[in-house]
Amino acid sequence: MDLADASNALVIDPLIESEGFVPLPPARGFFQIRVVTPLIDLLRMGASPRRLAWSLAVGAVIGINPIVGSTTLLALGIAFLARLNLIASQIANHLCFPIQLALVLVYLRAGEILFRTGPPPLAPNDLIHLMHVHPWTTAQTLWTWEWHAIVVWLLAATILTPLLAAALHPILHRLLLKLHHHPAH
Fold it and tell me: CA–CA distance from 116 to each of 9, 39, 140, 149, 165 (Å)?
C-alpha cells in the first residue's frame, strides 16, 4: 500500500455517515463529569441550593481534616446526621484529598505552636528507631501531635464551614435559576 492508498483509508465511509452515524463529541473533562454534572442533576431533582451549599461545605471541610483515611466515613456520617446531601458531601470530600495531604504538616505545625510542644520527629529514620525502641511511648507521642492537629482543624472548621456554605449558596442559586431558563433536553 502506497501513501495515497493509506490516506484514502482514513476517510470515513460515506455509507456509514448516511446511515445515521454521528461522531462522538469530544471527551468532557474530569471536573465537568465528576462535579458539575452531578450537582446540576441534584438541582434538577429538587435539591435546594442552601442544602447543597452546606453539603459541599461540610464535605470539603471534613475532606481537609488531619486524619488521612477518615474522610469518607466521617463525611457520610455527619451528612447523614445533619440530613445533608450525601452525594454532594462526598464530591467535595474527595475533591479535597490533595489539599488534605498538603495541610497535614500545617496542622501539625499549628498544633505544635498552639500547645507549645516540641516538633514531632518526622525524619523517617528517627521515627522507625523510636518505634523499635519505645513503641508505646512513640505511639502516645504521635497521638499527642495528632490530637493537637485535630483541635486546630476543628477551630478552622468552625470558621470555614459557614463561610464556604455562604459563598457557595449564591453560586448554586444562580445555577438553579439558569437551569429553569434552560431545561434539560
Answer: 73, 43, 17, 12, 32
What lies within 8 Å, CB to CB, of 21 at 6+ separation is: 12
Q: Choose among 83, 154, 149: nearest CA to 122.
A: 149
The most distant pair of C-alpha atoms in the chain lies apart, rounded to whole Å, by 77
Please state the separation of Cα 45 from the chain's center in Å. Answer: 22
120-129 exposure pattern, b = at least 16 Cβ within 10 A, e = fewer: bbeeeeeeee
The Cα–Cα gap between 75 and 65 comes to 11
Query: Which residue do the cell numbers 449564591 mark?
Result: 170
The residues, ordered by sequence, that sit 6+ positions from 108 with a Cβ below 8 Å of its Cβ are: 66, 120, 145, 146, 148, 149
Whether the model clears a pTM of 0.70, i.e. scores above it, the answer is: yes
Residue 124 Ramachandran class (φ > 0 left, ψ -120 to 50 alpha, else beta): alpha
Q: What is the pLDDT of residues 88-123, one digit of tens each?
A: 999 999 999 999 999 999 999 999 999 998 877 667
Contact between 93 and 63 (Cβ < 8 Å): yes
Centre a 10 Å sphere on the Cβ of residue 17 and count the other Cβ atoms it contains.
11
pLDDT band at 3 (very low <50, low <70, confident <90, very high): very low
